[in-house]
Amino acid sequence: MAEEKESTSIPLSQAENGGVDPEDPAKSPPTSPNSSTRKACCFVLQSWVSKKFMTGCVVLFPVAVTFFITWWFIQFVDGFFSPLYERLGIDIFGLGFITSLLFVFFVGVFVSSWLGAAVISVGEWVIKRMPFVRHLYSASKQISAAISPDQNTTAFKEVAIIRHPRVGEYAFGFITSTVTLQRENEDEELCSVFVPTNHLYIGDIFLVNSKDIIRPNLSIREGIEIIVSGGMTMPQVISPQERFARQKERIPLNRMM
């Protein structure tokens, strides 16, 4: 009798599952076609939803960043003159922003005159006597002079591409000046190329032979945009200035023919 009871006893886990051992695949019930179809549809739907969601994030992210930065810039510039209007009892949003733009415009007009240039010279003389401020002012002035419409001797001359740091690798830079290296046989013309390593504030200076420099058909502003954006605004095709000029000369000749 004891042996019959032991042979007829069923574990509690199997009793709850109707006497079927879930760990034994041979004894498990077969999967119905409806459940497998349902799982496949759920997987396809989940993949489609996640893909469309990521597409929406990719589209809206630059829009949101642009809107946030623009809104912050408007509020920042508006904050210069808005307290003055609040004291006068005038509460119009954007009036301080428009006033700031007009102020910058009139400063540009004033600095373009001889009196404004004299005032700026006196102000620079005072700033250059300050221990720490003069370095910040000199760096920021060089950057602003590089993108200024009134190009001067301290601005970037041209966009340059040099072979750096190894053969087969190239680096973007800006030609700042030229120097003549005197040798026993002949003089060598070198160009001082500034290669930024941290946006535009920090970089290395290389003296490169003018014949080894590739001068692309890019403006100074386009070169700055490429470096600041981390290369995301890089054009698909870059041609040297000599080849670009030859292509321009060929176009009228082809039209005449």
Description:
Residues 1-37 are annotated as: Disordered. InterPro entries: COV1-like (IPR007462). Keywords: Membrane, Transmembrane, Transmembrane helix. The chain crosses the membrane at residues 53-74, 94-127. This is Like COV 2. This protein has 257 residues and is an alpha+beta fold. Helices cover 54% and strands 14% of the residues. It has 8 helices and 4 strands. It has helices at 2-8, 12-16, 33-87, 95-112, 114-127, 133-146, 220-228, 241-256, and strands at residues 158-163, 170-181, 188-198, 202-209. Strands 1-2-3-4 form a 4-stranded antiparallel β-sheet, covered by helices on one side. A hairpin with a 6-residue loop joins strand 1 (158-163) and strand 2. Helix 3 (33-87) crosses helix 4. The chain is flat and about 90 Å long. The model is unreliable at 1-9 and 12-17 (pLDDT under 50).
Protein traits:
single chain; 257 residues; alpha+beta; 4 strands; 54% helix; 14% strand; disordered N terminus; Like COV 2
How far apart lie the N and C ends?
114 Å
Sheet with the most strands, sense and barrel status: 4 strands, antiparallel
Widest beta sheet: strand line-up: 1-2-3-4
What is the helical fraction, as a range of percent?
A: 40-55%
Number of strands: 4
Helix count, DSSP H or I runs of 4 or more residues: 8
Main structural class: alpha+beta
Rg (C-alpha, Å) = 35 Å
The proportion of residues in beta strands is 5-15%
Order of helices and strands: HHHHHHEEEEHH
Quote the average pLDDT.
76
